Amino acid sequence: MAVLVIAETDGANLPRGTLATVTAALALEAEVDVLVLDENADAAAAAASGIVGVRSVLKAGGPGLAGGLAENLAPAVIEAAAGYGHLLAPAGTWGKNLMPRVAASMDIQQISDITEVIDADTFVRPIYAGNALATVRSRDPVKIITVRGTAFAVAEAPGGSATVTDGPEVGAHDSARFVGRELSQSDRPELAGARIVISGGRGMGSGENFELLDRLADKLGAAVGASRAAVDAGYVPNDFQVGQTGKVVAPELYIAVGISGAIQHLAGMKDSKVIVAINKDQEAPIFQVADYGLVGDLFKIVPEIVDAL
Amino acid sequence: MKILVAVKRVIDFNVRVRVLPDGSGVETDNVKMSMNPFDEIAVEEAIRLKEAGTASEVVAVSIGPARCQETIRTALAFGCDRGIHVETDQPPEPLAVAKLLAGVVAAEDPALVILGKQAIDDDSNQTGQMLAALLGWPQGTFASKLEIGDGAFDVTREIDGGLETISINAPAVVTTDLRLNEPRYPSLPGIMKAKRKPIEARTPADYGIDVAPRLETVSVAEPPPRPPGRMLDSAAELVHILREEKGVL
């Protein structure tokens, strides 16, 4: 049976998580189709049809696409799902909001946030903030899965030539209404897809001091993140949060500044290729996962790095 | 307005979990257990609505082994009015939990159900959305702000790119994100009062729900360890290594 990827899209932009989800779908060794549920349907479908390895793109239409509410999208996903053996979506906030609603309606126990495909029924997923890896086998007739984007390579796009057909009509229900969105404005790369991530913790001392990290980030073309402690302290908004309950990143280079390294934070970054930790406490747990450590005053060390670049 | 809050007993967030040598799961014997932190936020939000006069009654429900009653007592100490314990040998999977909660909702008829967005043990992030689906109710997930209107709730949601606001009709399901509130510590009088508050005992059979797992855990393993790191002396040395040896700059 074929696999249907429930794609998170942003018009013509294909988020990294969606491209990684296609890679996970291709690992199931079946035909892969993609369902796009985007207000900007033509642009999204055109972009998705360019993903290498995809057979066909189902383009949903209708008034319920505006705002992307799970209440409207879930019935359309279920309609499109007929005949597919696997439904896969990226495990960002979009997929996390939508897919369990789909799964429960189909009486399926979803498998969240997989990091590896073993076979068509068996998958690996982190539990306990990534302190253990569970291999689980599903007995359900259809597998509904969300995919951790950092655990799979991105599928190539453009270059593919999938056909585009009209998919389900998305109705607008009156039980939920989209009011508005306040997206963080930044010229920097997005956390989830950045090649270099610099994160600050409680050791930053204040929101203003994050400017220090901004300077380094500008120099390196890096994204800026934060630990939960820094978010809790009100230094930065929650969409900066890297960790078990925030974003999971796995960049080429992760620089942790003034972060002690609680297991909840490590869960979100320990698969980074190279980890650098800067902390005044040489006993800080962050040094146990770091490839390189600098013990000392971050307010002195970070400007020194900027100068040395 | 009656509010139902769901609370899960999990390994305390400060405990470093250990994988059992036979790979069947993680060590839970003699390990400190607590209420799932996101569920504490759910309880706090419900209690604040009661203190504000918006909620008339707050009912805490927990599903799992006998000792989940301790978790319900904690919720009662926070200020919940009464508890419901649906006893099972093992904590069921999210779909079964959602079905049981739907049964509790049918019996209790709340206008709002608040749950944590995820439990920090299985990290599934499913139950609230599944409950909303089964009830046919709207959902306000990952809430950082909840405002009660006339027959509707305005929910500000934490999404990957920032914040989103939706308006959902009552009855509804809301799941909590960490900035929704800062939970209080239960007071001593609260703890004393909690001992006398009623906890209703239920079983899955009362709701006609089969809680048999759909997923088989083949194995549980430790993640591969990272090679030991190196302490450096200067920023210049770090930049040199990252640029010349690692090629990541």
Overview of the molecule:
- The complex is a heterodimer of chains A (309) and B (249).
- By secondary structure, chain A is of the alpha/beta class.
- Helix content of chain A is 26%, strand content 28%.
- Chain A has nine helices and 16 strands.
- Chain A has a seven-stranded parallel β-sheet with strand order 5-9-4-1-2-3-10. A five-stranded parallel β-sheet of chain A has the order 13-12-14-15-16. A three-stranded antiparallel β-sheet of chain A has the order 6-7-8, with no helix packed on it.
- In chain A, strand 15, helix 8 and strand 16 form a beta-alpha-beta unit.
- In chain A, helix 5 runs parallel beside helix 9.
- The radius of gyration of chain A is 20 Å and the shape is globular.
- Chain B has six helices and 13 strands.
- The N and C termini of chain B lie far apart (57 Å).
- Chain B has a nine-stranded mixed β-sheet, sandwiched between helices.
- By secondary structure, chain B is an alpha/beta fold.
- Chains A and B meet through helix 3, helix 4, strand 5, strand 7 and strand 8 of A and helix 3, helix 4, strand 7, strand 8 and strand 9 of B.
- Strand 16 of chain A pairs parallel with strand 13 of chain B, so a sheet runs across the interface.
